[in-house]
Amino acid sequence: HRGGRGNTVENTLPSFAWGLIDGAATLELDNGITKDGVVVVWHDQEVTPAKCLDTAPVTPNDPDFPYVGKYIANLTLAQIKTLDCGSIRQHGYPMQLMYPGTRISTLQEVFDFAECADPQHQILWNIESKINAQYPNRTLGVDDFVQKQHDVFSASPYKSAITYQSFDWRTLIAMKALDPSITTSALIDDETASMPDNSTSSWLAGIRLDNFPGPSVGMQVAQAAHFINADVLSPSAESYQTPVPDPAMTGYVPFTTKDMVDEAHRLRIPVKVWTVNRLNIVDQMLDMKVDGIITDYPNVVRRSVKQRGLPVAPKYPKQRVLKCLEEHLAKQ
């Protein structure tokens, strides 16, 4: 998840390098699109002061400076490239390794680094479109995301290894229409599944879960993902309504349920849950027979999966990966 956010500053070349060293099977990352139409790797719609620092304006007296606090969609790649997004450790991730001076990468730059570290092209990818269906003025639109991401995917030797995921199901439908060969994954959680006032969610391409037979909400989620021809269902493991964070605690509320997983499997849809950062939830998900776990701590989850005798991905050679990281950071 974001390269292993618990261990290294997120969505950066260093985080992806350490994810490979730690034996992640799949690198999960997010895409935004700049004002000048470049696909960059970043989770947030805006450049947040909790993650990035301004250095200097790209040109003297640039009226957009400072850039921190601005939306990615309102900044050019040149402006974004001035930001230092490797010098702040997140409060929620106290073991996070920092890489001061690290820049936001383009998706192409991440692929270029990966080809160096992974010459046999074994890496799998989960690549998310960070489009805002609820507040469309904060990001570029569906057509921009789908076309520009697809252009980068198609030029990469990793194209067949990419799963395209999104909370905004419109992008999944549009990507399938553009290129049926692209694997799509339907992201969903409490906040996107339904609206508090019971209005139709803006995230699910006009679909209402209560139009599906269920009978449970979990089964309706699986049925809705099947309806849009998603290849993978990717739900939040826990509900945002849970008052406690762990299944061992009284009152814990999951979002991913056994009936959701079973119904997805009946419909021949694999289930890959996120973001699982507690081993009791790992155990719960493995007991439900999910097909993949997205985590901020790939090294820890890998050990747990291996302990159960389940297959794990090989670790990538540390020295080769770090050498490639050094080379590609220097290019930024």
Automatic annotation (TrEMBL):
Residues 1-305 form the GP-PDE domain. GO terms for biological process: lipid metabolic process. It holds the Pfam family GDPD. PANTHER family: GLYCEROPHOSPHODIESTER PHOSPHODIESTERASE, GLYCEROPHOSPHORYL DIESTER PHOSPHODIESTERASE. This is GP-PDE domain-containing protein. It comes from the Eukaryota. The lineage of its organism: Eukaryota, Fungi, Dikarya, Basidiomycota, Agaricomycotina. GO terms for molecular function: phosphoric diester hydrolase activity.
